[in-house]
Amino acid sequence: MANINFLENEVIEFKKTTGELKEGIISIVSILNKHQGGKLYFGIKDSGEIIGQDVSSKTIREVSKAISENIEPKIYPVVNKVKLNDKDCILVEFEGDDIPYLAFGRAYMRVGDEDRQLSMKEIRKIILKDENEIGKWESKVSDYTMDDIDEGLLKEFIEKGRKAKRINFPYTNKEEILKKLSLVNKNNELLNAGYILFAKEAKLEMQMAIFATETKLTFLDIDQVFGNIFELIEIGEGYIRKNIKWPVNFKSGGMERVEIPEIPLEAIREAIINSLIHRDFKNPKSNEVAIYKDRVEIFNPGEFPEGYKPEDFIKGEGSIPRNPLIANTLYLSKDIEKWGSGFRRITEVCAKADVKVKFEIRKNGFMVIFYRKTDEELLDLTGENKNNSANDTENGTQIDTEKLILNLLEKTPDITQKELSEKTNISLRTVKRIIQQLKEKNKIERVGSDRKGYWKINNGEK
């Protein structure tokens, strides 16, 4: 880096070495409580003279750890080694809106280039002010402009809202529409909410994975995707849709297949939308979708509203959206019905489908867990008994896996049991069991070898 000279101010602090780490942490808190962001350098005197210091990867880790352990609420600074006047220094860049912040249990405020400890009266004043500033991150001006907005997506959104009768104005142009949606400020600058919702190449992240068992020890698939909120809703729902089981039903009296997802898609979509609406976008941790053998988890970073439990919202006791601008936009397109109804809708849909669902507050976020059934439980749920005979349900729909397999054997006599499993989405173990039962009933027989033979249907009745 070129030779530079600069001075401390209300958002920049200098420390000679990491021997002054404690004082540096106090300065971080002071700056956060006044300006919600700033920079701290190690290796520079108060006068601005760059003296440098020894910097190793261990030093960087120690600085990050000390900041993490001694500031509350937690922040996620970026700590890097930098060259200033050809000398090694450490730069800590930080930001946060959850004021007041405490360093070693005490609150401080930046005044000029000094760190002043706050009284209890001053702390209470900050808390009251902060409580009236919901949606601070989404209301800030973004680093992006109108040129980054996907106009096609914006047009589709307006059309969808008009069909839902929640938007009563036609599409005109990006600037006018974003202003009507309150996604720009009075200077027509794009807010974070507008960027996250409608940007062409938004950097909102979602991590998705499939695990082989009930733990995270072995994964079968893993993916990391980026996009805006509307894109991630579709990607997340599609990933789960593709990787859960779809038990096969038959309409009464015929062979028409009706596939029903083991977890209601309406509940899955609602959970993904909720996880994005209530995400803490300042937290570097991403939204997550994890599919296990026994459950599906949907996670979002961000603390649950203090003093509330998920049961309060299931009962319909209002809503406390972390990001009201984003929530209101999704309401206008009818992606959500109304604020605060998500948990109740998920609960009702899952109860109707006999799917167990759990809402869990985690230390660093919130999780919705859908519990999956075994293959045998799914067969019982759809009405198939142990002998795989068709059972009529109240609505006249029959569930007959045996009939499905017989139909496939007749159409493709050389089909393998593995191919049957893949075509029907039924486990190989269950396919083998049904094949054995069909043999015992003398409904089918194997002609020739396992490799080159074929299946013969007996008596013409399936």
Written account of the structure:
The model is unreliable at 384-399 (pLDDT under 50). This protein has helices at 21-35, 57-70, 120-131, 151-163, 174-180, 192-198, 229-243, 265-277, 310-314, 324-332, 342-352, 375-382, 401-411, 417-424, 428-440, and strands at 12-15, 37-42, 71-72, 78-84, 87-95, 102-103, 106-111, 114-117, 204-211, 219-227, 248-250, 257-259, 287-291, 295-301, 357-362, 365-371, 391-392, 398-399, 444-447, 454-457. The protein has 15 helices and 20 strands. With 462 residues, the chain is an alpha+beta fold. It has a 6-stranded mixed sheet, covered by helices on one side.
Secondary structure layout:
Elements: E1 12-15, H1 21-35, E2 37-42, H2 57-70, E3 71-72, E4 78-84, E5 87-95, E6 102-103, E7 106-111, E8 114-117, H3 120-131, H4 151-163, H5 174-180, H6 192-198, E9 204-211, E10 219-227, H7 229-243, E11 248-250, E12 257-259, H8 265-277, E13 287-291, E14 295-301, H9 310-314, H10 324-332, H11 342-352, E15 357-362, E16 365-371, H12 375-382, E17 391-392, E18 398-399, H13 401-411, H14 417-424, H15 428-440, E19 444-447, E20 454-457
Parallel strand pairs: 1-2, 9-13
Antiparallel strand pairs: 2-5, 3-6, 4-5, 6-7, 7-8, 9-10, 11-12, 13-14, 14-16, 15-16, 17-18, 19-20
